[in-house]
Specification:
Elements: H1 10-38, H2 44-66, H3 72-80, H4 89-121, H5 132-135, H6 150-156, H7 159-165, H8 168-189, H9 203-222, H10 228-243, H11 254-278, H12 286-290
Helix pairs in contact: 1-2, 1-4, 2-9, 3-4, 3-11, 4-10, 8-9, 8-11, 10-11
Amino acid sequence: MGTGVRESSLPARCLGEVVGTFLLVFFGCGAVHAAVLAGAQSGLWQVAVVWGVAIAVAIYTVGGVSGAHINPAISVALALWGRFPWRLVPAYAASQFAGAFLAAVTLFLFYGGILAEQESEKKVVRGSRGSEITAMCYGEYFPNPGAPGAAEAYSAGDQAKLDALVSEPLAFGVEVVGTFILALVVFALTDERNRAAPMARLGPVFIGLTVAVLISVIAPLTQACFNPARDFGPRVFAALAGWGKVALPGRGTGFLTVYILAPVAGACLGGGLYAKVIGPSLPEHPEDKAA
């Protein structure tokens, strides 16, 4: 028997994912721009909270239309564990990348003057060695170019120092664990059978807070991605905007392994832990049996 609720069309869902991911990246990467280029944030937590609020706002805005995945890793994990049709994953992922790319374009238009001034002051030539310090406003790097000693290592091309700070295998593991935790929380908070989940539609707030906490711990290492669209869309734009190979591929194969594959793997593992172990352990309630 049908529920009487009409699902949104695929074009409407895709538009929802474009808008939701745009909001996420515009606010989140906007906070990074403000911090890196204008010193507008007094600490990592302020940037992390902006990302958290951005996620909550995006979910509240488009969740009713598309489900607000706003992350290809989450879309893949939901499909893998039977919560989302596989046939819609490519359209969702393309929409998410498009939203992230458009947000990067918008931020570049807004901050272009300040960005050029910062490059002049720091004697950074866009696209040359050391320009990771500004490219980090778009794509992500390990170690974080803002971490102690990292900027000097990037400028000198000192791969041994960069590896000593954060190697590619370590960065991969960090992103797997971070996205594992995020997906575990998303699956738990969106499970209608989970009576411990926050009431009164507060799930998006706690998903956002989870990301804020994760960023606070992980951002000094990898800039805390957890989302292939958030990284790849702005990274492609940065490559086109003059950073070239510094943006894409960036350091080694890291953009692919650390910022694309690791989040997908982590999300699938985190979703699987909930779908196959924690979720089935939930006690049944009379309402569930009646349904």
